[in-house]
Design brief:
Layout: E1 6-7, H1 28-43, H2 45-52, H3 65-75, E2 83-84, H4 85-99, H5 101-104, H6 111-132, H7 136-158, E3 169-175, E4 178-185, H8 194-197, H9 199-202, H10 210-229, H11 233-252, H12 259-288, H13 298-310, H14 324-330, H15 337-369, H16 375-391, H17 400-418, H18 433-447
Antiparallel strand pairs: 1-2, 3-4
Length: 449
Protein backbone atom coordinates (compact mmCIF):
# COMPACT_ATOMS: atom_id res chain seq x y z
CA UNK A 1 0.00 0.00 0.00
CA UNK A 2 1.53 3.28 -1.07
CA UNK A 3 1.04 6.48 0.92
CA UNK A 4 0.39 8.24 -2.38
CA UNK A 5 -2.90 6.37 -2.54
CA UNK A 6 -4.25 8.32 0.42
CA UNK A 7 -7.66 9.84 -0.10
CA UNK A 8 -9.10 12.66 1.94
CA UNK A 9 -12.17 12.38 4.14
CA UNK A 10 -14.50 15.17 3.10
CA UNK A 11 -15.33 17.77 5.70
CA UNK A 12 -17.89 20.58 5.84
CA UNK A 13 -16.51 24.07 5.39
CA UNK A 14 -17.92 27.47 6.24
CA UNK A 15 -16.44 29.23 3.24
CA UNK A 16 -14.50 28.64 0.07
CA UNK A 17 -11.26 29.22 2.01
CA UNK A 18 -11.67 27.38 5.30
CA UNK A 19 -9.43 28.23 8.21
CA UNK A 20 -6.66 25.71 8.68
CA UNK A 21 -4.40 24.89 11.60
CA UNK A 22 -1.67 26.95 9.92
CA UNK A 23 -4.03 29.96 9.87
CA UNK A 24 -4.74 29.42 13.56
CA UNK A 25 -0.97 29.35 14.20
CA UNK A 26 -1.18 26.03 15.99
CA UNK A 27 2.09 24.15 16.13
CA UNK A 28 2.37 20.42 15.46
CA UNK A 29 2.45 19.63 19.18
CA UNK A 30 -0.89 21.32 19.89
CA UNK A 31 -2.46 19.75 16.83
CA UNK A 32 -1.37 16.36 18.11
CA UNK A 33 -3.47 16.73 21.24
CA UNK A 34 -6.52 17.45 19.10
CA UNK A 35 -5.80 14.42 16.95
CA UNK A 36 -5.59 12.31 20.13
CA UNK A 37 -9.16 13.20 21.15
CA UNK A 38 -10.98 10.57 19.03
CA UNK A 39 -8.55 7.91 20.31
CA UNK A 40 -9.03 8.95 23.94
CA UNK A 41 -12.82 9.16 23.62
CA UNK A 42 -13.01 5.69 22.09
CA UNK A 43 -10.68 4.28 24.72
CA UNK A 44 -12.81 5.74 27.53
CA UNK A 45 -16.08 4.33 26.19
CA UNK A 46 -16.53 1.76 28.98
CA UNK A 47 -15.62 4.25 31.75
CA UNK A 48 -18.22 6.67 30.37
CA UNK A 49 -20.86 3.92 30.25
CA UNK A 50 -19.83 2.75 33.74
CA UNK A 51 -20.58 6.08 35.38
CA UNK A 52 -23.64 6.83 33.23
CA UNK A 53 -25.25 3.45 33.90
CA UNK A 54 -26.83 4.43 37.26
CA UNK A 55 -28.55 7.35 35.55
CA UNK A 56 -30.06 5.15 32.85
CA UNK A 57 -28.12 6.92 30.11
CA UNK A 58 -27.48 4.51 27.25
CA UNK A 59 -25.54 6.81 24.92
CA UNK A 60 -21.90 5.88 24.39
CA UNK A 61 -18.87 8.16 24.41
CA UNK A 62 -18.27 7.30 20.75
CA UNK A 63 -21.24 9.48 19.87
CA UNK A 64 -18.93 12.47 20.41
CA UNK A 65 -16.47 11.37 17.72
CA UNK A 66 -18.39 12.78 14.71
CA UNK A 67 -18.42 16.22 16.36
CA UNK A 68 -14.68 16.02 17.05
CA UNK A 69 -13.95 14.94 13.48
CA UNK A 70 -16.11 17.79 12.17
CA UNK A 71 -14.05 20.26 14.21
CA UNK A 72 -10.85 18.76 12.91
CA UNK A 73 -12.09 18.94 9.34
CA UNK A 74 -13.15 22.56 9.71
CA UNK A 75 -10.11 23.95 11.48
CA UNK A 76 -7.23 21.54 11.04
CA UNK A 77 -7.58 20.93 7.33
CA UNK A 78 -8.47 17.83 5.33
CA UNK A 79 -4.86 16.69 5.07
CA UNK A 80 -4.94 15.83 8.75
CA UNK A 81 -7.86 13.46 8.14
CA UNK A 82 -6.33 11.59 5.22
CA UNK A 83 -6.47 7.81 5.30
CA UNK A 84 -5.25 5.18 2.88
CA UNK A 85 -7.73 4.33 0.13
CA UNK A 86 -7.06 0.64 0.75
CA UNK A 87 -8.33 0.92 4.32
CA UNK A 88 -11.35 2.94 3.23
CA UNK A 89 -12.34 0.16 0.83
CA UNK A 90 -11.91 -2.65 3.36
CA UNK A 91 -13.69 -0.69 6.08
CA UNK A 92 -16.59 -0.32 3.66
CA UNK A 93 -16.57 -4.06 3.06
CA UNK A 94 -16.53 -4.71 6.81
CA UNK A 95 -19.43 -2.36 7.56
CA UNK A 96 -21.50 -3.75 4.68
CA UNK A 97 -20.81 -7.37 5.65
CA UNK A 98 -21.76 -6.79 9.28
CA UNK A 99 -24.84 -4.79 8.34
CA UNK A 100 -26.41 -7.37 6.02
CA UNK A 101 -26.55 -9.75 9.01
CA UNK A 102 -29.72 -7.86 9.89
CA UNK A 103 -31.31 -9.62 6.91
CA UNK A 104 -29.42 -12.92 6.68
CA UNK A 105 -28.94 -13.88 10.35
CA UNK A 106 -31.43 -14.77 13.04
CA UNK A 107 -32.05 -12.49 16.01
CA UNK A 108 -29.81 -9.68 14.77
CA UNK A 109 -31.40 -6.25 15.20
CA UNK A 110 -30.86 -3.12 13.16
CA UNK A 111 -28.64 -1.94 16.00
CA UNK A 112 -25.94 -4.03 14.32
CA UNK A 113 -25.65 -1.33 11.62
CA UNK A 114 -24.70 1.24 14.28
CA UNK A 115 -22.24 -1.24 15.80
CA UNK A 116 -20.62 -1.77 12.41
CA UNK A 117 -20.26 1.98 11.94
CA UNK A 118 -18.76 2.25 15.43
CA UNK A 119 -16.14 -0.36 14.50
CA UNK A 120 -15.11 1.72 11.48
CA UNK A 121 -15.03 4.93 13.56
CA UNK A 122 -12.84 3.22 16.17
CA UNK A 123 -10.43 2.03 13.49
CA UNK A 124 -10.28 5.56 12.07
CA UNK A 125 -9.66 7.08 15.52
CA UNK A 126 -6.69 4.82 16.09
CA UNK A 127 -5.39 5.42 12.58
CA UNK A 128 -5.41 9.23 12.91
CA UNK A 129 -3.34 9.35 16.10
CA UNK A 130 -0.67 6.86 15.13
CA UNK A 131 -0.46 8.02 11.50
CA UNK A 132 0.28 11.60 12.48
CA UNK A 133 2.09 11.21 15.79
CA UNK A 134 5.33 9.57 16.82
CA UNK A 135 6.62 11.64 19.72
CA UNK A 136 7.28 9.09 22.45
CA UNK A 137 6.83 11.66 25.23
CA UNK A 138 3.31 12.66 24.26
CA UNK A 139 2.23 9.15 23.31
CA UNK A 140 3.49 7.76 26.61
CA UNK A 141 1.60 10.49 28.50
CA UNK A 142 -1.58 9.55 26.67
CA UNK A 143 -1.20 5.81 27.21
CA UNK A 144 -0.21 6.07 30.88
CA UNK A 145 -2.98 8.56 31.69
CA UNK A 146 -5.66 6.41 30.08
CA UNK A 147 -4.43 3.26 31.79
CA UNK A 148 -4.16 4.91 35.21
CA UNK A 149 -7.76 6.08 34.88
CA UNK A 150 -8.95 2.48 34.57
CA UNK A 151 -6.51 1.14 37.16
CA UNK A 152 -7.87 3.65 39.68
CA UNK A 153 -11.49 2.81 38.87
CA UNK A 154 -10.91 -0.93 39.12
CA UNK A 155 -8.90 -0.78 42.36
CA UNK A 156 -11.53 1.38 44.05
CA UNK A 157 -14.26 -1.00 42.86
CA UNK A 158 -12.41 -4.19 43.87
CA UNK A 159 -11.53 -2.80 47.30
CA UNK A 160 -15.22 -1.83 47.77
CA UNK A 161 -14.15 1.64 48.87
CA UNK A 162 -17.28 3.26 47.42
CA UNK A 163 -19.57 0.51 46.09
CA UNK A 164 -22.42 2.95 45.50
CA UNK A 165 -20.47 4.84 42.84
CA UNK A 166 -17.99 2.13 41.86
CA UNK A 167 -20.11 -1.03 41.54
CA UNK A 168 -18.68 -4.42 40.62
CA UNK A 169 -20.56 -7.49 39.41
CA UNK A 170 -19.65 -10.63 41.38
CA UNK A 171 -20.37 -14.25 40.46
CA UNK A 172 -19.90 -17.20 42.78
CA UNK A 173 -18.47 -20.59 41.93
CA UNK A 174 -17.19 -23.69 43.70
CA UNK A 175 -13.53 -24.67 44.12
CA UNK A 176 -13.05 -28.00 45.90
CA UNK A 177 -16.24 -27.52 47.85
CA UNK A 178 -15.38 -23.97 48.90
CA UNK A 179 -17.38 -21.06 47.56
CA UNK A 180 -15.36 -18.52 45.59
CA UNK A 181 -16.36 -14.97 44.67
CA UNK A 182 -15.22 -13.82 41.27
CA UNK A 183 -15.55 -10.18 40.17
CA UNK A 184 -16.72 -10.63 36.60
CA UNK A 185 -17.42 -7.07 35.51
CA UNK A 186 -16.32 -3.58 36.41
CA UNK A 187 -16.22 -1.25 33.41
CA UNK A 188 -16.12 -4.30 31.12
CA UNK A 189 -16.32 -8.07 31.27
CA UNK A 190 -13.40 -9.63 33.16
CA UNK A 191 -11.68 -10.91 30.02
CA UNK A 192 -12.17 -7.63 28.17
CA UNK A 193 -10.98 -5.45 31.03
CA UNK A 194 -7.47 -6.16 29.76
CA UNK A 195 -8.03 -3.87 26.77
CA UNK A 196 -8.36 -0.86 29.08
CA UNK A 197 -5.50 -1.63 31.47
CA UNK A 198 -2.47 -2.71 29.47
CA UNK A 199 -1.38 0.40 27.43
CA UNK A 200 0.78 1.92 30.21
CA UNK A 201 3.01 -1.18 30.07
CA UNK A 202 3.83 -0.34 26.44
CA UNK A 203 5.92 2.61 27.60
CA UNK A 204 8.30 0.21 29.36
CA UNK A 205 9.78 -0.54 25.94
CA UNK A 206 11.06 3.04 25.74
CA UNK A 207 14.43 4.17 27.16
CA UNK A 208 14.16 4.35 30.95
CA UNK A 209 13.13 7.68 32.47
CA UNK A 210 12.69 7.90 36.24
CA UNK A 211 9.16 9.33 36.45
CA UNK A 212 7.73 7.72 33.31
CA UNK A 213 9.15 4.29 34.02
CA UNK A 214 8.18 4.38 37.70
CA UNK A 215 4.58 5.31 36.92
CA UNK A 216 4.40 2.68 34.18
CA UNK A 217 5.68 0.01 36.58
CA UNK A 218 3.11 1.10 39.17
CA UNK A 219 0.36 0.85 36.55
CA UNK A 220 1.65 -2.59 35.49
CA UNK A 221 1.54 -3.86 39.08
CA UNK A 222 -1.99 -2.52 39.42
CA UNK A 223 -2.99 -4.17 36.17
CA UNK A 224 -1.60 -7.53 37.26
CA UNK A 225 -3.44 -7.24 40.58
CA UNK A 226 -6.73 -6.39 38.87
CA UNK A 227 -6.52 -9.14 36.26
CA UNK A 228 -5.59 -11.70 38.92
CA UNK A 229 -8.39 -10.54 41.18
CA UNK A 230 -10.86 -10.88 38.32
CA UNK A 231 -9.44 -14.37 37.62
CA UNK A 232 -9.08 -13.80 33.90
CA UNK A 233 -6.69 -16.44 32.62
CA UNK A 234 -6.28 -15.03 29.13
CA UNK A 235 -5.81 -11.51 30.48
CA UNK A 236 -2.99 -12.50 32.84
CA UNK A 237 -1.22 -14.57 30.19
CA UNK A 238 -1.45 -11.89 27.48
CA UNK A 239 -0.34 -9.17 29.88
CA UNK A 240 2.68 -11.28 30.79
CA UNK A 241 3.35 -11.60 27.07
CA UNK A 242 3.18 -7.80 26.68
CA UNK A 243 5.79 -7.37 29.42
CA UNK A 244 7.96 -10.00 27.78
CA UNK A 245 7.75 -8.26 24.39
CA UNK A 246 8.69 -4.89 25.92
CA UNK A 247 11.83 -6.50 27.36
CA UNK A 248 12.68 -8.41 24.19
CA UNK A 249 12.24 -5.54 21.70
CA UNK A 250 15.53 -3.77 22.61
CA UNK A 251 17.44 -6.87 21.57
CA UNK A 252 16.65 -5.94 17.95
CA UNK A 253 16.36 -2.17 18.44
CA UNK A 254 19.37 -0.89 20.34
CA UNK A 255 18.18 2.69 20.92
CA UNK A 256 15.35 1.44 23.16
CA UNK A 257 17.96 0.62 25.80
CA UNK A 258 19.24 -2.90 26.32
CA UNK A 259 20.22 -2.63 29.98
CA UNK A 260 16.63 -3.03 31.12
CA UNK A 261 16.45 -6.37 29.32
CA UNK A 262 18.81 -7.70 31.98
CA UNK A 263 17.98 -5.51 34.97
CA UNK A 264 14.15 -5.56 34.75
CA UNK A 265 13.74 -9.35 35.14
CA UNK A 266 15.94 -9.26 38.27
CA UNK A 267 13.89 -6.49 39.87
CA UNK A 268 10.71 -8.21 38.71
CA UNK A 269 11.71 -11.43 40.43
CA UNK A 270 12.52 -9.61 43.66
CA UNK A 271 9.21 -7.73 43.52
CA UNK A 272 7.33 -10.97 42.86
CA UNK A 273 8.90 -12.60 45.92
CA UNK A 274 8.06 -9.61 48.11
CA UNK A 275 4.49 -9.33 46.82
CA UNK A 276 3.83 -13.06 46.72
CA UNK A 277 1.67 -13.08 49.91
CA UNK A 278 -0.68 -10.64 48.19
CA UNK A 279 -0.99 -12.67 44.99
CA UNK A 280 -0.91 -16.15 46.55
CA UNK A 281 -4.63 -16.33 47.33
CA UNK A 282 -5.46 -14.88 43.93
CA UNK A 283 -3.16 -17.30 42.12
CA UNK A 284 -4.84 -20.34 43.65
CA UNK A 285 -8.28 -19.60 42.23
CA UNK A 286 -6.77 -18.39 38.96
CA UNK A 287 -4.73 -21.57 38.44
CA UNK A 288 -7.71 -23.75 39.38
CA UNK A 289 -9.78 -22.16 36.64
CA UNK A 290 -7.34 -23.46 34.03
CA UNK A 291 -8.93 -26.88 34.60
CA UNK A 292 -12.29 -25.59 33.41
CA UNK A 293 -13.81 -27.90 30.77
CA UNK A 294 -16.37 -25.49 29.30
CA UNK A 295 -16.10 -23.52 26.08
CA UNK A 296 -14.05 -20.98 28.07
CA UNK A 297 -11.28 -23.53 28.58
CA UNK A 298 -8.19 -23.89 26.42
CA UNK A 299 -9.76 -26.78 24.54
CA UNK A 300 -12.93 -24.77 24.08
CA UNK A 301 -10.96 -21.92 22.55
CA UNK A 302 -9.17 -24.28 20.17
CA UNK A 303 -12.49 -25.84 19.20
CA UNK A 304 -13.98 -22.41 18.61
CA UNK A 305 -11.12 -21.46 16.28
CA UNK A 306 -11.30 -24.73 14.35
CA UNK A 307 -15.01 -24.17 13.74
CA UNK A 308 -14.32 -21.53 11.10
CA UNK A 309 -12.04 -23.88 9.15
CA UNK A 310 -14.60 -26.66 9.30
CA UNK A 311 -17.17 -24.40 7.62
CA UNK A 312 -14.91 -22.25 5.48
CA UNK A 313 -15.76 -24.00 2.19
CA UNK A 314 -19.48 -24.30 2.89
CA UNK A 315 -21.26 -21.64 0.79
CA UNK A 316 -24.08 -21.53 3.33
CA UNK A 317 -21.77 -19.75 5.76
CA UNK A 318 -20.37 -17.25 3.26
CA UNK A 319 -23.12 -14.82 4.22
CA UNK A 320 -23.53 -13.75 7.86
CA UNK A 321 -25.51 -16.35 9.84
CA UNK A 322 -24.90 -15.16 13.38
CA UNK A 323 -23.81 -17.27 16.37
CA UNK A 324 -27.17 -18.95 17.04
CA UNK A 325 -26.30 -22.30 15.48
CA UNK A 326 -22.96 -22.38 17.26
CA UNK A 327 -24.74 -21.52 20.49
CA UNK A 328 -27.22 -24.36 20.04
CA UNK A 329 -24.46 -26.86 19.24
CA UNK A 330 -21.99 -25.98 22.00
CA UNK A 331 -24.06 -24.17 24.61
CA UNK A 332 -22.04 -20.96 24.47
CA UNK A 333 -20.64 -18.27 22.22
CA UNK A 334 -17.42 -19.03 20.32
CA UNK A 335 -14.28 -18.10 22.25
CA UNK A 336 -12.52 -16.98 19.10
CA UNK A 337 -13.01 -13.74 17.24
CA UNK A 338 -11.86 -15.42 14.04
CA UNK A 339 -14.97 -17.59 14.19
CA UNK A 340 -17.03 -14.68 15.51
CA UNK A 341 -16.18 -12.53 12.50
CA UNK A 342 -17.00 -15.37 10.11
CA UNK A 343 -20.37 -15.96 11.76
CA UNK A 344 -21.30 -12.28 12.07
CA UNK A 345 -19.87 -10.93 8.79
CA UNK A 346 -19.50 -13.92 6.47
CA UNK A 347 -16.64 -14.61 4.08
CA UNK A 348 -16.22 -11.00 2.94
CA UNK A 349 -16.13 -9.85 6.55
CA UNK A 350 -13.45 -12.42 7.32
CA UNK A 351 -11.38 -11.14 4.39
CA UNK A 352 -11.82 -7.57 5.64
CA UNK A 353 -10.67 -8.65 9.11
CA UNK A 354 -7.57 -10.24 7.61
CA UNK A 355 -6.73 -7.11 5.62
CA UNK A 356 -7.46 -4.66 8.43
CA UNK A 357 -6.13 -6.63 11.41
CA UNK A 358 -3.71 -9.40 10.41
CA UNK A 359 -2.01 -7.89 7.35
CA UNK A 360 -0.71 -4.79 9.21
CA UNK A 361 0.67 -7.03 11.99
CA UNK A 362 2.63 -9.11 9.47
CA UNK A 363 3.95 -6.07 7.58
CA UNK A 364 4.89 -4.14 10.71
CA UNK A 365 6.67 -7.18 12.15
CA UNK A 366 8.69 -7.39 8.96
CA UNK A 367 9.60 -3.69 9.22
CA UNK A 368 10.58 -4.16 12.85
CA UNK A 369 13.12 -6.86 12.08
CA UNK A 370 14.43 -4.72 9.22
CA UNK A 371 15.07 -1.90 11.69
CA UNK A 372 12.63 0.52 10.06
CA UNK A 373 10.32 1.25 13.01
CA UNK A 374 10.63 4.14 15.43
CA UNK A 375 9.79 3.83 19.13
CA UNK A 376 6.12 4.67 18.56
CA UNK A 377 5.89 1.97 15.91
CA UNK A 378 7.34 -0.61 18.29
CA UNK A 379 4.86 0.32 21.01
CA UNK A 380 1.82 0.01 18.78
CA UNK A 381 3.12 -3.23 17.23
CA UNK A 382 3.31 -4.80 20.69
CA UNK A 383 -0.16 -3.49 21.54
CA UNK A 384 -1.80 -4.67 18.33
CA UNK A 385 -0.11 -8.08 18.53
CA UNK A 386 -1.39 -8.57 22.09
CA UNK A 387 -4.90 -7.51 21.08
CA UNK A 388 -4.90 -9.92 18.12
CA UNK A 389 -3.80 -12.81 20.33
CA UNK A 390 -6.41 -11.98 22.98
CA UNK A 391 -9.26 -11.60 20.53
CA UNK A 392 -8.48 -15.05 19.15
CA UNK A 393 -9.64 -16.34 22.55
CA UNK A 394 -12.74 -14.15 22.88
CA UNK A 395 -15.92 -13.22 21.02
CA UNK A 396 -15.22 -9.55 20.27
CA UNK A 397 -16.72 -8.97 16.83
CA UNK A 398 -17.99 -5.45 17.53
CA UNK A 399 -15.63 -4.57 20.40
CA UNK A 400 -14.41 -1.04 19.73
CA UNK A 401 -11.04 -1.62 21.40
CA UNK A 402 -10.20 -4.39 18.92
CA UNK A 403 -10.71 -2.05 15.97
CA UNK A 404 -9.09 0.93 17.74
CA UNK A 405 -5.74 -0.87 18.00
CA UNK A 406 -6.08 -2.35 14.52
CA UNK A 407 -6.45 1.19 13.20
CA UNK A 408 -3.55 2.40 15.33
CA UNK A 409 -1.25 -0.21 13.81
CA UNK A 410 -2.49 0.57 10.30
CA UNK A 411 -1.75 4.27 10.90
CA UNK A 412 1.76 3.53 12.13
CA UNK A 413 2.30 1.29 9.10
CA UNK A 414 1.26 4.08 6.73
CA UNK A 415 3.63 6.46 8.49
CA UNK A 416 6.52 3.99 8.33
CA UNK A 417 5.91 3.38 4.64
CA UNK A 418 5.82 7.12 3.95
CA UNK A 419 9.51 7.40 4.89
CA UNK A 420 11.06 3.98 4.23
CA UNK A 421 14.63 5.25 4.48
CA UNK A 422 14.17 7.22 7.69
CA UNK A 423 15.69 5.86 10.90
CA UNK A 424 14.01 8.01 13.58
CA UNK A 425 15.73 9.01 16.80
CA UNK A 426 13.91 9.28 20.11
CA UNK A 427 12.50 12.74 20.71
CA UNK A 428 11.94 13.78 17.09
CA UNK A 429 9.05 16.18 16.31
CA UNK A 430 5.53 14.85 16.65
CA UNK A 431 4.23 15.56 13.13
CA UNK A 432 6.70 14.15 10.65
CA UNK A 433 7.32 12.88 7.16
CA UNK A 434 4.69 13.99 4.63
CA UNK A 435 2.65 15.77 7.29
CA UNK A 436 5.58 17.95 8.30
CA UNK A 437 6.00 19.08 4.72
CA UNK A 438 2.26 19.83 4.58
CA UNK A 439 2.64 21.99 7.68
CA UNK A 440 5.68 23.82 6.29
CA UNK A 441 3.97 24.51 2.99
CA UNK A 442 0.85 25.74 4.74
CA UNK A 443 2.87 28.10 6.91
CA UNK A 444 4.79 29.45 3.90
CA UNK A 445 1.54 29.98 2.06
CA UNK A 446 0.12 31.81 5.06
CA UNK A 447 3.15 34.09 5.35
CA UNK A 448 3.15 34.94 1.64
CA UNK A 449 -0.39 36.31 1.68
Amino acid sequence: MNPENETHVKSMTCSDSPMTWADMKLGPEKVAWVIALPFAITFCDSAFAYFMRPFGIGITANALIPAVLLYMGLFLGRNILSISRTYVIWLGVLVWSMSIAVVTAEQVSTHRILEAGSCAASFYSGYLLWRRCNDERQLSMILISLSLLYVAICVVALRTIDPAHFPVTVNYWNMNGVGQARPTKITADANMQFYYLFPAALTLVLPSRLIRTSVAILAAIGTLYILSKMQTRSGVIIFGLVLLMTLAAPIWKRDLGRKKTIIAPIFGLVAAIIAWPIFESLAGALIYRFHDETMASGNGRVGSTLYVFQHLFDPYWWVPRGPDEFLKSFGGLPHSNLTGIYLDAGLLGLLAWIMLVLRPVVKMTSLFFKGRLDSAGVMVLIAASAVVILQLTLYNTTMDQVWLWAGALAGALSRAQAAPETRPIAGQPLIRNTQLSDYTLAQNSHLSR
